[in-house]
Design brief:
The protein has 267 residues and is of the alpha+beta class. It contains six helices and 13 strands. The chain has three domains: 57 residues, no CATH class; 121 residues, PH-domain like (Roll), CATH 2.30.29; 79 residues, no CATH class. The radius of gyration is 25 Å and the shape is elongated.
Length: 267
């Protein structure tokens, strides 16, 4: 199979992949004009080790799609990953197995202090050979809180790697990004007419010694998405969002949606 993820170096255009001569770069303005495609790009995008946008759009990865429902257009990339799902599932089971005994003890202590003697199948709420009163129960609850929070985060990551998605939705004068599972999503809105830049921004999270990128949209508010996506899907989501807001004229967007929907690969 042809490698569609080869890396580029030098002063290459992030849109078409052709070389941008030095004289076409405006350092004071922070932009570069590609003589091949006649597109203006931020200097921070020139020579990035990512595929050009045109190549990304020609070879979209699996589980990425563009959907249109009336005036609403959604650009969706799945966070599904079998490898990350299995690794995170194992970590979640290990992590949640450690405090499970203490959680059962805490439940028994809360039941005893609020209701009365616990049922026979629950452990006796005893600590240091003494019954657990309200003080000891509160202390144990506070102690277990960070372990419970970490367990919930791991559970959510497992679900995201099994069924999750990251997407941009544009509906006329409204736009939002959202990540989640089914109807359980975290949504952040912004004004589409205020978008001034779309870029891949490195985060502090590292995988294999390299910082993980996110797609950042600079508008009336800065919003980011795609941290859990694989690199090819993140690049695709960046490419379609960049083209929608910065590369296309409004009259060309309908054709762009139709082309991307036709290029969608089966899962």
């Amino acid at each position: 199979m042809q490698d569609h993820f080869s890396q580029y170096s030098g002063n290459t255009c992030p849109v078409c992949g052709n070389e941008i001569p030095t004289e076409s770069m405006n350092v004071s303005e922070g932009v570069a004009l590609c003589p091949s495609c006649e597109r203006v790009s931020p200097l921070s995008h020139v020579g990035r080790l990512v595929r050009p946008i045109t190549e990304i759009l020609r070879h979209p990865p699996s589980r990425c799609e563009v959907r249109q429902n009336g005036p609403e257009v959604a650009f969706t990339a799945s966070t599904r990953s079998q490898g990350k799902f299995l690794i995170t599932l194992g970590l979640m089971l290990f992590w949640n197995g450690m405090p499970s005994v203490f959680l059962t003890l805490l439940a028994s202590a809360i039941y005893t202090n609020l209701v009365g003697p616990p049922p026979p199948w629950m452990p006796k709420p005893v600590m240091n050979d003494e019954p657990m009163g309200p003080g000891a129960t509160i202390f144990l609850a506070v102690f277990l809180t960070p372990f419970i929070a970490a367990g919930i985060v791991l559970f959510w990551l497992v679900a995201m790697y099994a069924w999750g998605r990251s997407e941009l939705v544009v509906n006329g004068p409204e736009a939002w990004i959202q990540s989640g599972i089914g109807p359980l999503v975290w949504r952040r809105r912004f004004r589409p007419e205020s978008v001034v830049n779309v870029r891949l921004r490195p985060t502090d999270m590292e995988v294999n010694g390299e910082n993980v990128d996110v797609v950042q949209i600079d508008a009336d508010r800065t919003v980011r998405l795609g941290a859990l996506l694989s690199q090819p899907r993140r690049e695709w989501l960046y490419a379609v969002i960049h083209e929608w807001f910065l590369g296309l004229q409004p009259k060309d967007r309908e054709q762009f949606v139709a082309q991307q929907a036709g290029l969608k690969l089966p899962p």
